[in-house]
Design brief:
The protein is mostly helical and 156 residues long. Helix content is 69%, strand content 0%. It has five helices and no strands. The protein is elongated, with a radius of gyration of 18 Å. The structure holds protoporphyrin IX containing FE.
């Protein structure tokens, strides 16, 4: 039961525009984190050390994450009851929390290294898997139908 009218509901354009902002800002956030991961995996950008690349990208990553969370909360406010019952949304939020904590602890320590190492490669793989799960969780929100037995409803 929602007492206050959500201003987003007043225009049919607000949700798609917000979703565009959500998608664009993930290129800043997940995109820049993936650049550091590929460098840790020795897959290109060898003119810079992982530490230098992290220094160059960390402000963009933070701006992207803030925009993701802000636009995501606005998207969420469109139908909070539906989203909290949506398995894909819940999995995405759990993975997002784990990915953010991992990014600013273990991943940061590995990226500050001057050299790439075996442990740095493992950290990069975990990071890519965590952020990949957030993205897949986001995409599958639209295909998961809360309350249906199977959960998946490809007809939506
Ligand atoms: C870095 C963090 C995030 C990433 C990478 C991410 C990624 C995505 C992706 C890929 C989509 C699918 C877009 C589409 O299919 O068009 C999406 C949709 C969505 N995200 Fe996020 N998201 C993030 C954070 C958040 C947060 C913090 C929230 C809310 C608290 C949120 C709420 C939503 C909602 C409600 C949708 C729309 C689902 C729908 O009804 O189609 N997201 N997100």
């Amino acid at each position: 039961m929602c007492l206050i009218e959500n201003p987003l509901a007043e225009s049919a354009l607000s949700f798609p525009i917000l979703e565009c902002i959500h998608i664009i800002s993930f290129s800043f956030s997940v995109g820049t984190i993936a650049l550091v991961d590929f460098r840790l995996l020795d897959l290109g950008m060898r003119r810079q050390t992982p530490a230098e690349l992290l220094k160059t990208t960390s402000a963009w990553t933070l701006i992207g994450l803030v925009l993701m969370i802000f636009s995501g909360l606005l998207l969420f406010s469109d139908d909070p009851e539906m989203y909290v019952q949506n398995g894909a949304f819940v999995i995405k939020m759990v993975c997002l929390l784990a990915a953010i904590v991992f990014n600013y602890t273990i991943h940061r320590r590995a990226a500050w290294s001057k050299e790439t190492s075996a442990s740095g490669k493992v950290v990069a793989c975990v990071s890519l898997a965590l952020w990949g799960s957030v993205v897949f969780g986001g995409i599958f929100i639209a295909f998961v139908n809360p309350g249906s037995g199977s959960g998946l409803d490809l007809g939506r």
